[in-house]
Each structure stands twice: as C-alpha cells, then as structure tokens.
Recover the amino acids of this structure.
C-alpha cells in the first residue's frame, strides 16, 4: 500500500496531531444588501470535532451551514476548509436537512447510491458498500423498500446513509432529527455518535434543543440573532462514548444552564 | 392535479352498509334510466324523431357495426387522427416545457406566445388549418395537436419548475450537473403532473379531431355523426356518438394505465410489488452483507 492511499483511508489516525479543518475569520453574510444574516463570525474546527450550533430561529444557523457547504458565497471575511478558501461545493463536504429529501421513485438502495450515480454510475462494489452503510444506520432488510413505505425516522436514516456514501469527511446536518418524535430522536442521536466514531467524520450539527446540543457535542456554538452572531463557544469535555445516562449528571446540566443563560441574556 | 379530472372510484367488489353491492346499485340506476328513456319515446312523451329510443340506437348500432360493418373504418380513422395528433401535441408540449424549464431566456421569449395561445379559442384555427392542409387526416391531426398542446405544456412546465429547494441544494452539494439534476430530480419529480396533463390532453385531442372532421372531411366518426344528423337519422348518429364515448374511454383508460405504471410510487400496491420484485432480483447482493 502506498503512502497516498494510506493517507486517504485513515484521515484521523490515532496519535497524529489533530488538524484544523475549518477556519472562519470575520465572516459576514448579507442578503439583498440589507438583511444581515451573519456578522463577524470567527471560529475554528478541528478534525473529528462534533460541533453543535444552537440559537433562536433566524440567527443564521442554516446560512452558516450553507456557507461552509459552499452553497452560498460569504459577503465578507475568510472561510477556509482544509486549508483552501471555500468557493463552491466540494466532495469532502456533505449536507443533510430536516426533510429527508429522498427521491420517492428510487428504492432505498438507489437513494443511498445517488452520490455514485451522480458521479458517473454505481458499480457492484458501490452496491455492496451501500448495503454495509444501510446496516450501519440500522436499515437491514429495507434495501429495496421505497421511501413512501418508511417512517420519518427510517427516512432520515436513509438520508444519513446517503450522506455517508458521499465519502465526505465534513458532515453538515441542519436539524436532521428536528421533525421526529423525542424517542426516535434520542435513539438516532446515540447512533449518530456511534457512527461518527466509526467513520471518523467532523460534524456540524444544527439544533434548537439545548440538551441535544450538549449531549452530542465537543463544542457548542451558541448563536444570537439580529444580526446573527456567534455569541459564545461552550466546551463539553464529557467522556465518550456517551449514553443517555450522562444527561442526568451535574457536569452535563451545568453546560445546559450556561447555554440557557447566554441565550436568555441575548433576548 | 388537473381540475378537469373526475375522481373515478374503484368500487368493484365492495359492499355498502345496506348490503347491496355497488355494481348492483349502478346496474339498477342504469336500468331505471334506460327504462324511463325507452318509455318516454314509446308513449310519445317526446317525438322519436328528436330522441331515438335506446332500442332504436342499439338496432342502428347493430346494423352499422355488425351487419354492414362500415363504422369500423371510420372509427380507425378518427382514432388514428387522435393518437397521432396527441403524440405531436405532447411531443411539442413536453419539449418546449423542458427547454423553458432549463433556460430562463427561452422561457421569457416564448411566454407571450403561450399566453396568446392560451387566450385564443384554439378551435377557431380549425378552418385555417383545413385551408392549409386539405381534406385528409393531416389537418385533423394538426388541430388535435394544437388543442392538446397547451395543457400538456403548462402541466409539464409547472411540474418541472416546482423543484423542492432542499432537494436541489442536496444535488448541488453533491456537485451534480444541470443535466443530472434534470434527469434524476426535475423530470421524475414532474412526472405526476406531466401525466395529469396527458390525461387532460388525450380527451382534448379527441375533441380536436372531431372538430376537424366537422369542418371538412370524408371519413371519421365526426363525419358520420354530421351526415346522419343532417339526414335526421338520429339513431345512427347516437350509435356513432356511443362509439366516440367508447373511444374516449379507451384513450383515457390507456393514459390512466400509463400513469399508474410511470408514477408507480404513488400507488401502494404497485410499490409493494416492485419492491418485492427488486428484493428477489438482488437476493445474491443482499446475502453478501454482514450477518447481524
Ligand atoms: N436566501 C435568502 N434571502 C434572503 N434572506 C435570507 C435568505 N436565507 C436566509 N435569509 C435570512 O437570513 C436570516 C437567517 O436565516 P437562517 O435560515 O440562516 O436562520 P436559522 O438560524 O437557520 O433559522 P431556523 O432556526 O428558523 O432554521 C433570516 O433573517 C432569514 O430571513
Ligand atoms: Mg435553519
């Protein structure tokens, strides 16, 4: 095995110093010349970090994610991903939304294969990989079901498998479980952490739920609206792997109250 | 999707709370209706010259269709006009809709003509088309095409333009080309609305062909109806009308069948079947996954 393929297959090798993967300096975003959605945003994200973004509606969380995804250009400032400025969508970055955005006319399998189909066509190997991913997200037995046959939670699992199949190292999730019931959401959160450990991805996760934000994250970015600002970054040094049990600990709840204070003070 | 569609309920085999099956209810209503019609002519509540009795109509149909068998060639002529006209109208409608959906410039440039076409009573163009194309089947095909073009164009464009913005962003984040977005998102997503346009269009194509035949023709069911009516042979005219109803049902039924096949994901029974078939076909692939 040569050095290049080794590098490609193990991006987050244990022992290696963790690298800065995203850096934002003084980013702003203005819509239509007057709506200031984001102002002077500064942060860095290390490889393998799980970042939660939280803040009231309209504070620019989705906008920030779209900037990082390369779907929108920033109005000012510097945004570097893996050392080079963001200009357009890149293969290292994948995105997922509150709606599963599955294609109703494609089977679960073909939905998961979409990134490969768009890249030129799915091979037998791709199909086997897709089946593995469907196992990873807990959907074995549903490979050839259609989206309409699945529950909302299962549809989001398909969307997650599709996202993982893009091969992206940076995953941007915009309230991915926001439309699901509490039980389903908790279960998916635990599974998301397990999956992240397995695929070693860097994740930016938008949520409206403080508990969820703290439970998942290494760092919580707390944002405030009008104009959208990154008010505070709260570290969550709780041990991993995490189970729902930790939500009862003082350590956990201190973070929750801290964030609530920041959000409360801003409104 | 389309306002002109009658929701046809599949009521076969079901029973009501009263215990009388739906088909029996339908049969009963039909028999009562026919009886009243027959009696109103028999007892001369209306003149048989104005309204032929059902019995006379069936007799006339038997004579035209079975004894002399002359109705079938006219049936074939009209059907050909409708099918070819529909194919041309649908071809243009979908093509121009696709170009409009892909290019904003094109959409802007064709829009005034589409509006003009929408507000003009398109049937009025029939005599002009006949003047251009003569007395054969071609002018009828052209009229059928022009009349069914518009709803197909509008439906197709509406369907193609109503892309879900988050799905579009998902495709963009996967760096999909415009063509791939069209092929994998826009077009399949538009199919339900396009097919609804086809269903409206096929009925309109039939109207177009008949109007063309009325203007001038030597063959076709429209011609027969006109001729029989002029000669006050109303049972024969009604027999031809019934053939047109049958043709309409065949055309609409075909469109509905195609709709179900193409937009299969909106029909639970079809999805279940296709899903099962795919699972069986890929059994070897599924067996290869890690055992859980
Ligand atoms: N394409 C756009 N054009 C104009 N204004 C926009 C656009 N997208 C977002 N905005 C504005 O930018 C601000 C931030 O929007 P954004 O969607 O990022 O908020 P959010 O934090 O994701 O909110 P929510 O929690 O409700 O999803 C809002 O005031 C919104 O109206
Ligand atoms: Mg949002």
């Amino acid at each position: 095995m040569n050095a290049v393929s080794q590098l490609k297959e193990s991006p987050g090798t244990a022992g290696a110093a963790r690298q800065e993967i995203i850096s934002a300096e003084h980013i702003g975003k203005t819509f239509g010349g007057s709506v200031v959605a984001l102002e002077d945003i500064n942060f860095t994200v290390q490889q393998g970090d799980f970042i939660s973004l939280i803040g009231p509606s309209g504070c620019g969380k989705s906008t920030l994610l779209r900037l990082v995804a390369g779907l929108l250009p920033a109005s000012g400032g510097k945004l570097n991903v893996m050392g080079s400025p963001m200009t357009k969508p890149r293969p290292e970055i994948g995105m997922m939304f509150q709606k599963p955005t599955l294609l109703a006319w494609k089977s679960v399998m073909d939905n998961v294969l979409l990134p490969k189909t768009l890249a030129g066509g799915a091979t037998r190997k791709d199909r086997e990989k897709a089946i593995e991913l469907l196992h990873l997200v807990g959907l074995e037995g549903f490979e050839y079901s259609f989206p309409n046959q699945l529950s909302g939670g299962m549809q989001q699992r398909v969307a997650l498998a599709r996202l993982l199949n893009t091969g992206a190292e940076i995953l941007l999730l915009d309230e991915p479980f926001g439309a699901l019931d509490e039980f389903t959401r908790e279960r998916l959160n635990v599974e998301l952490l397990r999956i992240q450990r397995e695929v070693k991805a860097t994740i930016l996760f938008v949520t409206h739920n403080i508990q969820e934000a703290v439970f998942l994250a290494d760092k919580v970015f707390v944002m405030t609206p009008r104009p959208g600002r990154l008010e505070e970054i709260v570290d969550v040094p709780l041990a991993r792997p995490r189970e729902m049990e930790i939500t009862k600990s003082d350590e956990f709840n201190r973070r929750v109250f801290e964030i609530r204070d920041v959000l409360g003070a801003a409104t | 999707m389309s306002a002109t569609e009658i929701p046809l309920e599949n009521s076969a085999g079901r029973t009501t709370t009263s215990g009388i099956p739906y088909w029996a209810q339908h049969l009963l209503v039909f028999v009562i209706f026919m009886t009243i019609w027959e009696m109103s002519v028999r007892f001369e509540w209306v003149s048989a010259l104005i309204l032929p009795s059902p019995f006379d109509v069936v007799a006339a149909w038997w004579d035209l269709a079975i004894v002399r068998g002359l109705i079938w060639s006219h049936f074939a002529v009209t059907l050909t006009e409708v099918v070819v006209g529909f194919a041309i109208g649908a071809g243009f409608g979908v093509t121009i809709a696709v170009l409009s959906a892909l290019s904003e410039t094109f959409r802007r440039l064709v829009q005034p003509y589409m509006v003009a076409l929408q507000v003009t009573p398109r049937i009025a163009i029939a005599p002009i088309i006949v003047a251009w194309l003569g007395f054969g089947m071609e002018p009828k095909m052209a009229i059928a095409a022009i009349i069914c073009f518009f709803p197909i164009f509008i439906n197709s464009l509406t369907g193609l333009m109503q892309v879900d913005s988050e799905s579009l962003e998902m495709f963009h984040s996967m760096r999909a080309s415009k063509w791939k977005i069209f092929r994998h998102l826009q077009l399949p997503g538009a199919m339900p609305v396009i097919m609804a346009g086809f269903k409206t269009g096929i009925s309109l194509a039939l109207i177009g062909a008949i109007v063309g035949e009325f203007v001038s023709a030597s063959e076709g069911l429209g011609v027969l109806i006109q001729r029989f009516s002029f000669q006050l042979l109303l049972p024969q005219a009604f027999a031809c009308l019934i053939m047109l109803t049958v043709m309409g049902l065949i055309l609409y039924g075909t469109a509905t069948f195609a709709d179900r096949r193409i937009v299969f994901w909106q029909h639970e029974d079809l999805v279940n079947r296709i899903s099962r078939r795919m699972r069986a076909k890929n059994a070897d692939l599924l067996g290869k996954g890690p055992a859980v």
